[in-house]
Amino acid sequence: MKGSTMLTRLFSDPSLLPDVQKYSGWTEDSDSDKIKEEDQDTQDGMEVSGLRGGSRTHSEHDGEDDEDDEVEEEDDGEDTEGDRPKKRGPKKRKMTQARVERSKMRRVKANTRERNRMHDLNSALDNLRKVVPCYSKTQKLSKIETLRLAKNYIWALSEILRSGKRPDLVSYVQTLCKGLSQPTTNLVAGCLQLNSRNFLTEQQCQEGGRYGSGSFSMHSYPYQCARLSSPHCQPGSNSHPLRTHGYCSTYDSLYGGSGSPEYNSPEYEGPLSPPLCINGNFSLKHQGSASPDNEKGYHYSMHYSGLPGSRPAGAHNLVFGSSGTRSGIHTENVLPYHDMHIHHERAPVYDELNAFFHN
DNA sequence: TAGGCCATCTGGTCCT
DNA sequence: AGGACCAGATGGCCTA
């Protein structure tokens, strides 16, 4: 199966992810209607350049007509360009009016299919956007950034499960932001309410870009100073783009909320966290999906097989010391464990995960 | 205004 | 034969 197909089917499969159309506000029917309307438009305005002079696909060449199988003369300059070798292959058929019409219809149908295909792909991407950190309806991540962030997110979650430790925020953000563009990096960092200046300091001070205390095996990240020094990312800034655009932090949802309501996306409607990868296998079990009204009640099952049942030793102050700072990280904007809370009544996974990190 | 992102059209190729 | 997939081209929109 080709990649995009897999992506589309994975994230469009209602058995794998909560109700695609419901979240995206797009349904097959509505889209079909839209397509039909568009077809009317495009059929009228559609340029038939490809049909006029361009080459035609093989299916357009072959066996179209029974009635007009007359063969067009070898008129490709057979006399005027005598030095050019005659073309081989099936001889051109004369483009009768009927054949032109049929070609048009084929092209219109192909365009519709292609449009639908791209809509499916976009729908799948929308679903992906909803389960990676920094989901916002109003300011969507670009396609490529969504894919990159999703990859990093999967990696980060896998590392959490593999190590059985709660990562420190810096490592978590670093992992998520690896390879992302500067704006997206700022967004993610801001989403996770990281003090960007300190993050930067922390990071830049680590020789080789490594941050050693985390449970991740960190690589060096190509962050530039300007990247995270944006005033938008300052905790106290009211101009924080995430406040404006209602971004939502998955770190918060996993490890607890910020406690500042304005930081939570007012537009958030659904589950925020994807199924977690455990031992390389995604464990996804949604319950009570019989009713479409249960969309908020999708539960992701999570098993900590092989993982310690309590918080790992030394994890207590992995991130936030009682002083409010750790290694220069200001934590005025992030709450300690006991202040964390779960958005909605979402899923046992959050309880389990929080219990895991709190115990 | 340049550049990024996106939707759409299009023709080619591969597969069923 | 027809559909799926892909990549190139094109134009619109938005933002710095």
Strand order of the largest sheet: 1-2
Structural class assignment: mainly alpha
Molecular shape: elongated
Termini separation comes to 43 Å
List low-pLDDT spans. Answer: 12-90, 195-250, 252-359
**Structure annotation, total helices:** 14
Approximate strand percentage: under 5%
Query: What's the total count of β strands?
Result: 4
Spell out the helices and strands N to C.
HHHHHHHHHHHHHEEEEH
Reported for the largest beta sheet, the result is: 2 strands, antiparallel
Mean pLDDT: 49
Radius of gyration: 27 Å
Helical percentage? 40-55%
Domain BHLH: 105-157
Keywords: Activator, Developmental protein, Differentiation, DNA-binding, Neurogenesis, Nucleus, Transcription, Transcription regulation
GO molecular function: DNA-binding transcription factor activity, RNA polymerase II-specific; E-box binding; protein dimerization activity
Region (Disordered): 1-106
Can you describe this structure?
By secondary structure, the protein is mostly helical. Helix 6 (97-131) runs parallel beside helix 7 (143-163). It has helices at 3-12, 20-24, 28-45, 49-52, 58-61, 97-131, 143-163, 169-177, 182-191, 196-205, 225-228, 241-245, 250-255, 348-358, and strands at residues 277-278, 281-282, 325-326, 329-330. The model is unreliable at 12-90, 195-250 and 252-359 (pLDDT under 50). It is built from 14 helices and four strands. 42% of the residues lie in helices and 2% in strands. The chain binds a DNA duplex (16 and 16 nucleotides) through helix 5 and helix 6.
Task: List key phrases describing it.
mainly alpha; 359 residues; elongated; two-stranded antiparallel ribbon; DNA-binding; 14 helices
